[in-house]
Specification:
Number of helices: 14
Radius of gyration: 29 Å
Structural class: alpha+beta
Low-confidence stretches: 303-309
Order of helices and strands: HEEHHEEHEEHEHHHHEEEHEHEHEHEEEH
Helix content: 25-40%
Number of strands: 16
Distance between the termini: 52 Å
Shape: elongated
Bound molecules: adenosine-5'-triphosphate, magnesium ion
Length: about 425
């Protein structure tokens, strides 16, 4: 096959090989122990969801919904989308499985792959992995603080360098709408200096103007009204509590009033961890509180018939997601330990009868709880011993026609044994280590 015809992984996707797979297992293990230790339960949701879930849940003015979704027709005229994020699917699952009946908050975590149609570059892919945590059903500021502290602990354990935590509050309800209107008035007054993208979003999502890289927009935003000045008493108090609890937990942060997250659903607390080891794609992970999201997902955009809607109290929520690839790029993960094996089963002479005897010995070894491998590639005896060495085998059994030679790769000795006593001898040898 010529070079041009060779099939490669699609742009923005990659294979996870060897040591990389090992480092990822370490990350997964650390995430599991930190999050499950704090009462978060693992959840898996489907890769495909109804497109409507993200349109409603993530918000139609966001980059994700406007240009990053991989959507397809299910063959029956319904649009499905490869999940671009994890929060909306978890809220769907919370509603679908009546989790409001459980003890609140319901705390869930995930580690899965996500899909966004982005321009691929270092730290930005079309299929990437996120670890995330969501706590639904409580608006206690301790939920916010605990959630942030857990991500901070994970980044620390993975050795992520140059970490900064930026924190803000987006407020909620009326104070938020009042601020939004004030910002819109301000943006319209300075429309001529704004980027086209920001101008196009004044109606739908004026807050995103703070996120712009456009020089003119950045200058205008320096004097824009600030959200924290508009917080209601309750929201200001909630934010003060979150900050205080972070101080109690000794997690340093900076309040950044220009912090807006790319998703529409946030209320009150928002935060982002960045790393200066990452260059342009500096976001490692972030999230916030989304007190209206479950309601949005539960009820259709237009109520069916007046009076049939059941009014239930909104379900508050708080969560985050962090990019696995970016944690590994900016981190200094603990080295992957190569695990040596107890026994390598070698063949004295190639052929069917030795292979049968060797295979039997391999099965017996594994039933006895040993880690074992056998020769699978027809190597010479010398080649097999070399390979056993690479595997770090403690013992090598050289299976012959009538008996087996058992070689101690550490002690250096070799004894000849009846094949059916080999496992016993290995177990005895390992016990005397
Ligand atoms: P960015 O500003 O870099 O586009 P985002 O705001 O879109 O990030 P979130 O939706 O908050 O990111 O996702 C949480 C984390 O997931 C990010 O901080 C980042 O580490 C990671 N992430 C997001 N998109 C990608 C991607 N395309 N490739 C790799 N990691 C990603
Ligand atoms: Mg993005």
């Amino acid at each position: 096959m010529s070079r041009e015809e060779r099939i490669k992984a699609p742009r923005g996707t990659f294979d996870v090989l060897g040591e990389q797979a090992g480092v990822r297992s370490i990350l997964e293990g650390r995430a599991r122990s930190i999050l499950e230790g704090a009462g978060y339960e693992r959840i898996e949701t489907p890769v495909l969801e109804a497109t409507e879930l993200f349109a409603r849940g993530v918000g139609s003015s966001t980059d994700i919904v406007q240009k990053e979704m991989f959507s397809l027709d299910d063959g029956g005229g319904r649009s499905l989308t490869l999940r671009p994020e994890g929060t909306a699917p978890i809220c769907r699952a919370y509603v679908e499985h009546g989790m409001h009946k459980r003890k609140q908050p319901v705390k869930l975590w995930y580690l899965s792959s996500f899909f966004r149609h982005e321009r691929a570059q270092a730290g930005r892919y079309r299929q990437f992995w996120q670890v995330g945590a969501e706590a639904l059903g409580s608006e206690d500021p301790a939920v916010d603080a605990e959630s942030i502290v857990l991500l901070s602990a994970l980044l620390e354990e993975m050795g992520v360098r140059g970490v900064r935590l930026r924190l803000s509050s987006l407020g909620s309800g009326e104070s938020r709408s009042e601020y939004r209107e004030r910002l819109q008035v301000y943006l319209r007054a300075h429309e001529a200096s704004l980027s086209e993208e920001v101008r196009g979003r004044i109606e739908l999502n004026p807050l995103r103007a703070f996120d712009s890289d456009h020089e003119g927009t950045k200058r205008i935003m320096e004097n824009a009204p600030r959200l924290l000045d508009f917080l209601s008493l309750e929201d200001a108090e909630h934010f003060a509590q979150v900050r205080d609890l972070l101080e109690v937990a000794k997690v340093p942060y900076e309040v950044d009033q220009t912090l807006v997250r790319g998703l529409d659903y946030y209320t009150r607390t928002v935060f982002e961890f960045t790393s200066d080891a990452l260059g342009a794609q500096s976001g490692v992970g972030g999230g916030g509180r989304y007190d209206g999201l479950v309601e949005k997902i539960k009820s259709p955009a237009t109520p069916p018939t007046f009076g049939t809607m059941i009014k239930s109290p909104p379900t508050p929520g708080m969560g985050w997601a962090a990019g696995i690839e970016r944690i590994l790029l900016a981190g200094d993960p603990p080295p992957v330990a190569v695990s040596p094996i107890d026994l390598f089963v070698a063949l004295d002479t190639p052929g069917t009868s030795s292979r049968r005897a060797a295979f039997g010995l391999l099965a017996e070894a594994r039933s006895a709880g040993l880690t074992a491998q056998m020769e699978l590639a027809g190597r010479s005896l010398k080649g097999q011993l070399g390979y056993a060495n690479v595997l770090g085998a403690r013992y090598v059994a050289i299976v012959g026609k009538d008996e087996t030679g058992l070689k101690d790769m550490q002690g250096g000795g070799q004894e000849r044994l009846a094949t059916d006593t080999v496992i016993h001898a290995v177990l005895r040898g390992l016990r005397t280590l």
